[in-house]
Design goal:
The structure holds 2 protein chains of 2 kinds. By secondary structure, chain A is α/β, with parallel strands linked by helices. Helices cover 32% and strands 18% of the residues of chain A. Chain A has a 9-stranded mixed beta sheet with strand order 3-2-4-7-1-8-11-10-9, sandwiched between helices. Classes of the chains: A alpha/beta, B mainly beta. The interface between A and B is large, with 37 and 38 residues. The structure holds zinc ion.
Chain lengths: 389, 137
């Protein structure tokens, strides 16, 4: 079978509306669906459109029909791919194909999650399911308890194979916090040190509290249209240049190789092939950081460093303000916000940087950004390459 | 005190595995075409996709492949913290999640690739869980 080739869809669809909820953090007066709606209204306002213009809807968490009902719309293209926090990146890739195919002309992608306040939670929301599922039979009896005890399982193997250290993982939290200092919306803004991370309380060794993302409420939304209309909106279009997605396991015990994100490599290769650019063309990176090791695995899977070099690279602070590989410039899931499915916020920051709207944390002349996210515990994976020219 | 931790419920394709544990035998499947063992049970080989597979009794010996020492307990595990959630690679090649027990839950004593062996933990009259401990020399 020949390898798939999506290069014809490069630069065919653009993000013309992008916005988050008015505030993020602690929002006990917003239900989950309200967070979706506020995000949708803000992103449509950003594009100068209304819900009446939307004919395509994608979301994860609630299903697209639950959200259609709440918004009062009847879209003629829907995508409910819900495979964890990176689902929204996958929606963008699917929307590119849908718009290019003529299935939809204005696609709205929304995220909203009452991750901290747990108000009006709708939808599946993850979990192992019943005790007859593979997770229920082969993981739950051993006391796994949410992402800190499952997402963390691969770390020790990475340390064993490559000599990666706790200090190197801690450096990710330090560099990311340094970006959050520059983001007035970030939840955690006090600078931290490697020692602070290592001295924070143990969650699931080798994870300490400061190796873990924050837990918040919030949302975000995107509006996408085709090339024919993309230049007719108030903001400069942000083009989808490349996309990749993959899925392999659901339960962490079934991850094929605990030292590398093998299907993450495949997603990245597809995205770079479609975008038809080299790694060196990337100006800005958003690597979903549920925990400090996730961006290390992303960096290696995407080929920015060789396998095993992610830890030393992070310790050298290339990703911090002033470094030559600016990453997670909003302060990431670690310090900015993490509602549960953070991928939407990673896309939002990439768009903000490519629009020149990132304020004190703006990367000068950013032209091409990459966004890469897991869903579940390295289970699904998705990559987007975005550009402003 | 009643056992209040999550319990598995077998499905038809996993029944033999759980029945084996009750007899204190570790029964997993092996592919007759590519000769590889695999876990968890299913009626085909996830490596080469052959449906020509068989049940085998394996040694219960292996190595600690990776692990965490967990401090935030799942329901029922409150008095166990910290406890080791482990992935063991059996000598036959398949990997499974388990708890490493009879060891100090400390990175000084729990290390990747340490040899381990199965302990059959009869947690209820119906269910035996496969736990592992450091191998006796
Ligand atoms: Zn086979």
């Amino acid at each position: 079978m020949p390898a798939p080739d999506s290069r014809a869809l490069r630069h065919k669809v653009a993000i013309v509306g992008a916005a988050e909820t008015d505030t993020v953090g602690l929002l006990p007066n917003h239900s989950m669906l309200h967070l979706h709606a506020e995000s949708a209204f803000n992103a449509l306002d950003d594009a100068g459109l209304t819900l009446a213009d939307v004919d395509g809807l994608a979301t994860a968490g609630p299903s697209p029909v639950q959200l259609s009902e709440y918004l009062g719309i009847a879209p003629t293209w829907i995508d409910g791919t819900s495979v964890g926090g990176g689902s929204f990146l996958i929606h963008v890739g699917h929307a590119v194909a849908a718009i290019a195919a003529g299935y939809a002309s204005v696609v709205l992608i929304t995220h909203g999650e009452s991750g901290r306040s747990r108000v009006g939670v709708v939808g599946a929301g993850g979990g192992a399911g019943g005790n007859q599922t593979p997770g229920g039979q082969f993981e739950a009896p051993f006391g796994v308890f949410g992402p800190p005890s499952t997402f963390s399982i691969p770390i020790v193997r990475h340390m064993k194979r490559f000599g990666t250290t706790e200090e190197q993982f801690a450096a990710v939290a330090v560099a990311t916090r340094a970006w959050a200092v520059k983001n007035p919306r970030a939840l955690m803004r006090a600078p931290i040190t490697v020692e602070d991370v290592l001295n924070s309380r143990l969650v699931a060794w080798p994870l300490h509290l400061l190796n873990c993302c924050v837990v918040t409420d919030g949302g975000g939304a995107l509006v996408l249209v085709g090339e024919d209309r993309a230049r007719d909106f108030p903001k400069k279009p942000v083009w989808v240049l490349g996309r990749g997605e993959a899925g392999a396991h659901s339960n962490i015990s079934q991850m094929r190789d605990f030292t590398q994100w093998t299907h993450g490599i495949a997603a990245g290769e597809n995205a770079f092939h479609m975008a038809d650019i080299d790694r060196s063309a990337i100006d800005h990176a958003m690597f979903y950081d549920a925990f400090t090791h996730t961006p290390v695995y992303a960096l290696e899977a995407l080929g920015f460093v060789k396998p095993g070099e992610g830890g030393p690279f992070m310790a050298e602070m290339h990703t911090a303000p002033g470094g030559d590989f600016p990453m997670n410039t909003n302060g990431g899931g670690l310090s900015y916000t993490h509602t549960g499915m953070y991928g939407m916020f990673a896309i939002q920051e990439s768009v903000a940087q490519l629009r020149g709207e990132a304020g004190e944390r703006q990367i000068r002349d950013a032209k091409i950004g990459i966004v890469h996210a897991p869903g579940g515990f390295f289970a699904s994976v998705s990559t987007l390459i975005l550009g402003n020219e | 005190m009643a056992y209040n931790k999550p319990l598995p419920a077998p499905t038809p394709e996993t029944q033999e595995y759980w029945d084996g544990l009750k007899r204190h035998e570790l029964r997993i499947q092996r592919c007759r075409d590519c000769s590889r063992h695999y876990f968890y049970p299913r009626p085909f080989c996830p490596h080469c996709y052959s449906r020509n597979v068989e049940w085998t009794t394996v040694s219960g010996k292996g190595k600690l492949h990776t692990f965490v020492i967990n401090y935030r307990p799942a329901r029922g595990f409150e008095s166990d913290v910290p406890y080791v959630i482990a992935i063991v690679e059996l000598d036959e090649g398949a990997r499974m999640m388990t708890n490493l027990i009879n060891v100090q839950p400390d990175p000084q004593h729990v290390t990747a690739d340490m040899p381990v062996e199965i302990v059959y933990d009869d947690v209820t009259p119906e269910v035996t869980l496969p736990k592992f401990q450091p191998a006796r020399r």
